[in-house]
Structures are given as structure tokens and as C-alpha cells.
Amino acid sequence: METVRPTLLSSCAKAATAAEARFRVPYPNALTRASRIFALDAGAAEAMFAITEDPWNGAHFLTVGGASQIDPDATGVDDLPLSAPDGRAVLLSAEIKGADVVVMLASSDTRIGAAEVIAREAYERKIMLAGLVLADGLSKSSVDRIVAALRPYASVLVVASENDFIPAMLTALRA
User: Residue 129: which H helix or E strand, with range?
Assistant: First the structure.
């Protein structure tokens, strides 16, 4: 019969000793992620453009344009109107190819259909999808609508009370 030994608080303390520290890697993870950050609406785009010049590890920042209501069932992968920060039109299929993580930024629920198109492509390619609701200046009912709209698609969903949270989240995701 095998003895089961529970993890005790002293186990964590033992892992923090100098003797155990020699087994730790002394530098940050060298692998970067191929991140794609999508601003789903004008408010999210404004917040995103404020940080695009920061030093990111190969992150691509994209804005969803076009009509406010996008029918996800009638919108193909390359029918979604996307643009890079320089205004150049890009294709979702090309942008999402090789991506490790997709982050959707939303400050309104106007383009949730676009979120579904992006999420569908990320899901088919087994890419992690995170959603960040920018709640700065929004009513609780507006935030609740956005959260409810993004919840079916995002494996990670965060409500940020201030737009300053965007760089922190992207850094945590190694963007």
C-alpha cells in the first residue's frame, strides 16, 4: 500500500530556501508569443493605440472596422474588415496564422459579431483567446452587456476599471 503524503505549508517554505533556489532559472522566459490584439470598437482602438508604440515582443495590433453590427454567420474569415495601426487593410486568416494568443479589447457591445468571427478562427486553430472589457467610464449595465457578449468566446475574461491595465495584461500574456 502506497503512502499518500499531502502537500504541507512547510513544503512551500522548503522550496523557497537558498538550497532550492539553485534549481531556478535565473532569467525570464526567452520564448515570446505571437500575440494578436484586436480592438473591437472605437473606444478600445483609442486605448490600444495609446500603447502600440511601447516595446512589444512581436505583438500585432489590429482594429475591427466596418458596420457596427457584423453578422458572424454571414461573415467569412477574410470578410472581417481589419486594419493595422498604419491603416493598411489586413486579412484575419493571415494575421491569426501562427498566433499563440488572441486578445480582444472591448469598450462597447457594438461589434460582438466580429468577436464571434475572431473567436471561431482562434478556436479552430487551438489558440488561446482572452477578452479584456474596458470599463472606464461605463455604467455597470454596459459592462454586464459586454461581459455577457464576450463570455462564450474568451477562455480568460477580465474587466479592467482603467485602461492602464491593458499593458499589464499584455505583459502577463508575454505579448
Answer: strand 128-134
* DSSP annotation string for 62-119: EEE-S-SS--TTT--TTTS-EE-TTS-EE-HHHHHTT-SEEEEEESSSTTHHHHHHHH
All cell numbers assigned to 15: 522550496
Place of cell 532569467: 27
Domains in the chain: boundaries: 32-172
Q: What's the residue count for the chain?
A: 175
Nearest to 130 by CA among 122, 140, 141, 138: 122
Cell of 132: 479584456
CATH of segment(s) 32-172: 3.40.50.1440
pLDDT tens for each residue of the chain, 175 residues long: 566 655 555 556 666 677 777 777 666 656 667 899 999 999 999 999 999 888 888 899 999 998 778 888 898 899 999 999 999 999 999 999 989 999 999 998 888 889 999 999 999 999 999 999 999 888 899 889 888 888 888 889 999 988 888 998 888 887 7
> How far is residue 95's CA from residue 137's CA, in Å, rounded to a whole number?
31
Report whether 132 contacts 158 (CB < 8 A): yes
